[in-house]
């Protein structure tokens, strides 16, 4: 069922039509097989790039579509509903490109952004480490200045697109200062000394490759430093605010797909001589699923509109990530219940939706971390 969206411009409405057509013909038909075979959807990202969808929020002068986040996130939701691994990949790529787009020099933007938003380059966001996930200050990957280069050494973990990306927005320690000793770098995949662990064996999003990334004396030019030395923490947290909105939108797309599947099944499945949709218990379950999905959508849109207006949105992004991903977990689980025994089989995608929903409560900051962000922001504002 197509979501009746409220979009700010006629251009956005035309973009929605393009996205829906692409989802119907280029993404949805291939999702189940690719997830089953754990096949990375690189061709899907090329398709998105050719359609101008890898740079939706970025400036037109670099090949982007210069759309407000309110529009970008709704397009992302549509893509995630068709194929979650691709939706998450688009969100990660957009977040990865954010560092150059927002903090890069004019030369860096001119040189790199056109291929980033045009689909020639696919990005990965290398922040987490085996012992430094939620606690960024625990980072141990180092970048040591050596003449006109930095030499990077260390290991990053849980890296989406690991071994498939063309560049890695990498955060490394340039001094011992816990908060101001981290810097950001653009690291091309071709750099000597860059290697990857075996793909993680995950319960969901199996089409989206996740690996360790090893930096063994990787040399990158000083020109690849993003911002100034010590700006890495600020760049990382700023990118994560926007990235959390991307995951929130993906989670709502997944919930919408599960809701659509459940409603369709309930109409067609008969028991006791009647469609199960006729039974009040089923109607109430579907109503709760619809309410959770719609309210979650409103939450991420509210945060996006604040971002578009230049208003602070850190707390709202954390709330959106928390609410939307919890809603996705509930709605996908309920979808399995609606389908009964069939929901527990791979004949229908309900079980895949449920497996995919779980990780949305974990990455881009666990939902426990979101509660910390929300409470700290709240208490700071009332002191």
UniProtKB/TrEMBL annotation:
It comes from the Bacteria. Keywords: FAD, Flavoprotein, Oxidoreductase. Residues 230-378 form the Acyl-CoA dehydrogenase/oxidase C-terminal domain. Residues 124-216 form the Acyl-CoA oxidase/dehydrogenase middle domain. Its cofactor is FAD. InterPro entries: Acyl-CoA_DH_CS (IPR006089), Acyl-CoA_Oxase/DH_mid-dom (IPR006091), Acyl-CoA_Oxase/DH_mid-dom_sf (IPR046373), AcylCo_DH-like_C (IPR036250), AcylCo_DH/oxidase_C (IPR009075), AcylCoA_DH/ox_N (IPR013786), AcylCoA_DH/ox_N_sf (IPR037069), AcylCoA_DH/oxidase_NM_dom_sf (IPR009100). The keyword Flavoprotein applies. Residues 9-120 form the Acyl-CoA dehydrogenase/oxidase N-terminal domain. Belongs to the acyl-CoA dehydrogenase family. This is Acyl-CoA dehydrogenase. The lineage of its organism: Bacteria, Bacillati, Actinomycetota, Actinomycetes, Propionibacteriales.
């Amino acid at each position: 069922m197509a979501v009746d969206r409220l979009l700010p411009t006629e251009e956005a409405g035309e973009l929605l039509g393009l996205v829906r057509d692409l989802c119907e013909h280029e993404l949805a038909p291939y999702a189940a097989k690719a997830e089953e075979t754990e096949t990375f959807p690189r061709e899907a990202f090329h398709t998105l790039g050719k359609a101008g969808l890898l740079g939706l929020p970025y400036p037109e002068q670099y090949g982007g579509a210069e759309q407000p986040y309110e529009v970008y996130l709704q397009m992302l939701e549509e893509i995630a509903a068709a194929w979650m691994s691709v939706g998450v990949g688009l969100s990660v790529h957009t977040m990865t490109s954010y560092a150059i787009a927002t903090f890069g020099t004019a030369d860096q933007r001119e040189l790199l952004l056109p291929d980033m938003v045009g689909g020639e380059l696919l990005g990965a966001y290398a922040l987490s480490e085996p012992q430094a996930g939620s606690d960024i200050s625990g980072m141990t990957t180092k970048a040591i200045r050596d003449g006109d280069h930095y030499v990077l050494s260390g290991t990053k973990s849980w890296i989406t697109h690991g071994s498939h990306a063309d560049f890695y927005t990498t955060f490394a320690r340039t001094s011992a200062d816990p908060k101001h000793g981290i810097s950001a770098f653009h690291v091309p995949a071709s750099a000597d000394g860059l290697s990857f662990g075996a793909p993680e064996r995950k319960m969901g999003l199996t089409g989206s490759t996740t690996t360790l990334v090893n930096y063994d004396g990787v040399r990158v030019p000083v020109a690849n430093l993003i911002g100034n030395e010590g700006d890495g923490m600020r760049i990382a947290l700023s990118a994560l605010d926007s990235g959390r909105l991307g995951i929130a939108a993906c989670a709502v797309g997944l919930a919408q797909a599960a809701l659509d599947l459940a409603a369709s099944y309930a109409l067609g499945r008969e028991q006791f001589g009647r469609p199960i949709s006729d039974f009040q218990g089923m109607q109430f379950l579907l109503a709760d699923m619809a309410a959770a999905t719609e309210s979650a959508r409103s939450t991420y849109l509210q945060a996006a509109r604040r971002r578009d207006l230049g208003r602070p949105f850190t707390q709202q992004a954390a709330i959106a990530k928390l609410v939307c991903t919890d809603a996705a977990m509930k709605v996908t689980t309920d979808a399995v219940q609606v389908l009964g025994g069939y929901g527990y089989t791979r004949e229908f995608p309900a079980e895949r939706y449920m497996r995919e929903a779980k990780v949305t409560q974990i990455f881009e900051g666990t939902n426990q971390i979101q509660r910390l962000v929300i409470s700290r922001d709240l208490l700071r504002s009332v002191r």
